[in-house]
Write a structure and sequence with these properties.
The protein has 343 residues and is an alpha+beta fold. The protein is 33% helix and 19% strand. Strands 8-9-12-11-10 form a 5-stranded antiparallel β-sheet, with helices on one face. A 4-stranded mixed β-sheet has the order 1-7-6-5.
Length: 343
């Protein structure tokens, strides 16, 4: 049975009307590819009254999401906050307090031996249930005002609490959009990025993927982050080693990327390690390209953390000036001695 009224005859379906409105707002007519037409229209610098700058930025990010891989959005291994499976509940409580995350990956001996993840809600439910069980065992006749955590054994290992949840595993080359769909289907908000040898490369949360579209999502517990690179006031710059080379270029106006390095490193810390041939220690100064020097302000055995960027004097500025010209004819007459020019 056809439910369309006579007034709807000859009208495009609802999806078609929405598409025509969107393409009309973006001034796209008969584009061979809607995606290409959207990208071209959004790249025009002329402001479009139909969309705010925030909406235009989000639409551009949605189009870029198709080309992003998991390793483009993941938290690198060195920055993962994880917990060992045999820690006590008291230690887990302290980590949750300081980490500021609601989910923590759990591992065995090393991070390459993942066991799952622990959610702070499951942890609090376990503590509350343990407190309730402790009250019942004491058979107190006085009605409690609330859970009494004094009876909870915080020395119990996390593995004995049986509150771990599974995590997803994804290769670094997996499209980020595919991982997002898988997270939604399985209702799992955390995935570990596993390399070809089965080692842990990084971590991705559903928030990391969503932020590529809407920008950083900060809550009331997030501290204001210092800029990745900032001028110190004495002609030097202080930078987080995780700063991208393109960000350094935008601030300093010098190109640090070369064809040899473009496939190897993306961050300032990675560049310094390649230049030094190892992980430099705190206090070391590593000469860099474009008359720059990198002083390592903070580092550990695995990575560089903070760097001071110094512009050293160029060679032509430090070389002695050429000798002043005199009224001598440089062409020798006999031997190697020049003669004075004739008046």
């Amino acid at each position: 049975m056809n439910d369309r009224s006579p007034s709807d005859a000859g009208q495009p379906p609802q999806g078609g009307r929405w598409r025509e409105r969107l393409l009309g707002a973006l001034r796209i007519r008969n584009a061979s590819s809607i995606r290409e037409g959207l990208a071209d229209a959004l790249s025009v610098t002329t402001p479009m009254a139909e969309f705010s700058p925030q909406e235009q930025a989000m639409l551009q990010n949605v189009l870029k999401l198709r080309n992003l891989r998991v390793d483009d959005v993941m938290v690198p291994r060195a920055d993962i906050v994880a917990i060992q499976g045999e820690v006590t509940l008291g230690e887990l409580l302290q980590v949750f307090r300081t980490a500021g995350h609601s989910r923590l990956p759990v591992y065995g001996e090393t991070l390459d031996d993942p066991r799952g993840m622990v959610h702070i809600r499951d942890f609090l439910d376990f503590l509350a249930a343990s407190a309730e069980g402790s009250r019942r065992r004491r058979r107190s006749n006085v009605p409690p005002s609330g859970p009494n955590l004094a009876g909870v054994d915080l020395s119990l290992p996390l593995s004995a609490a049986r509150i771990l949840r599974p995590v997803l595993y994804a290769p670094p080359t997996m499209p980020a959009l595919d991982l997002l769909a898988r997270m939604q289907a399985t209702r799992t908000h955390m995935a570990l990025v596993i390399d070809e040898y089965g080692g842990t490369d990084g971590l991705v949360s559903i928030e990391d993927i969503v932020e590529t579209v809407v920008g950083n999502i900060e809550d009331e517990h997030d501290d204001d982050e210092a800029p990745m690179i900032a001028e110190s006031g004495d002609g030097t710059f202080t930078a987080d080693a995780r700063a991208g080379l393109d960000e350094v270029f935008a601030t300093l106006g010098v190109t640090l990327e070369t064809e040899e390095l473009s496939e190897e490193v993306d961050t300032l810390g990675g560049l310094i390690i390649v230049l030094a041939g190892r992980v430099p220690a705190r206090g070391e100064v590593v000469p860099g390209p474009q008359a720059l020097e990198f002083e390592v302000l903070d580092a550990d055995a695995r990575r560089v953390k903070r760097v001071r960027i110094i512009r050293r004097a160029r060679d032509e500025d430090t070389d002695p000036p050429p000798p002043a010209m005199t009224d001598l004819d440089p062409r020798p007459v006999s031997g190697d001695e020049p003669r004075e020019r004739r008046a």
